């Protein structure tokens, strides 16, 4: 049979076109599996289906498209077509009729692989047995191989974002068991992809499922808990990556990285700060470079602390100093240090979700009144933090909030000319928010938050709650603003 030659559509396909394909009776021997069939696992008919088809044939119409060799590619109903072929093979000896199958012949899909796979996905996704991996792979491949018009229509039908193909590709990095748990836990496509980005951080899956559960419990459709947990996981991953890089740098320089001694083993190493040369001169990184005991440990910020692995064997002396027993106060200081490091990291991580929320506010058609009033007050009163930030002429953050492409190269003067009147107040808030963000940029800001800084965070918290819980403060931000919260008990 001659095949139809088709081109990519330039406008949306109407329901009338798709609801009225040609229906014909086909010999199942003419039907093969279409390359764009979304189901790639469990593609064979089971015995129950074969037994049913032997008795009554295939009741539901399958969907096919013509192939150049005269056969038809089944993108819907391939297992039914196989079952009928198997039944026909033994029909003569069993005294049963040889049956044909009803098929929608979709000549309009010739050359439209992306849309064909999408239609197959819609068909198979809701049938029992299609794996999460097959669903993800089909979402990715179908959306990539589509025109812009088809892609917009398909993403609306699937209920996914414009970046669904990218998310589907990323999510496929997860193993099958993790994919099943993510789906069962209620993760959408974007969230499953985000899990794949941080899956190697310890406890990532458990923490994200817990955050998602808290968002669901609130019942307002927001994802504030998820966003904050994801920001923390990304920060931890960046920290892990920084440590791995520091370790790799030492390895490339042929400098041994000292580990912790096993139980009962004496640690002979000493940091250079505690050692001198044989003549009593200080040991430094430079004058210790040629020592066979040259080695290092990494501190909490992944910087090398230079050691000698065996000072006695290499002719070094230990600086004379009385050894003080470790006290409870020392333990408290160590615990405080660990908390400072964790809070500093959490504060830096919290900037991501917070600034994303500010950008969403700025790009809304109408800025919330509370944000407008806050911006107007700052501009009219010109507090010192705002005027000093304005003097720096920092524009990248403002441009990012406004959604300008390549914000690092943005010309705000040009942006001002193009800004519609209705968006002026949004730009004003972007400007003020950029100054506020600069004011709280330091990792240790959490430890001594001012009333003014707390007011900005509390404003964003209130706006996030009003926006169906789309944003909430992180744990470290929540602790930092606690003493500045309004007293609701009065």
UniProtKB/TrEMBL annotation:
Composition bias (Basic and acidic residues) maps to: 325-336
Gene Ontology annotations for the cellular component aspect, listed alphabetically: chromosome
Region of interest called Disordered, as start-end residue ranges on this chain: 1-26, 257-336
Where composition is biased (Basic residues), the residues are 314-324
Q: Name one Pfam family in it.
A: ParB_N
Record's InterPro entries?
Chromosome_partition/occlusion, ParB/Sulfiredoxin_sf, ParB_N
SUPFAM superfamilies found in the cross-reference section: ParB/Sulfiredoxin
Ranges annotated as biased composition (Polar residues) = 1-12
Which GO terms fall under biological process for this protein? chromosome segregation
Q: Which residues form the ParB-like N-terminal domain?
A: 24-125
UniProt-listed PANTHER family: CHROMOSOME-PARTITIONING PROTEIN PARB-RELATED
The name this protein carries in UniProt is: ParB-like chromosome segregation protein Spo0J
Provide the taxonomic classification: Bacteria, Bacillati, Actinomycetota, Actinomycetes, Kitasatosporales
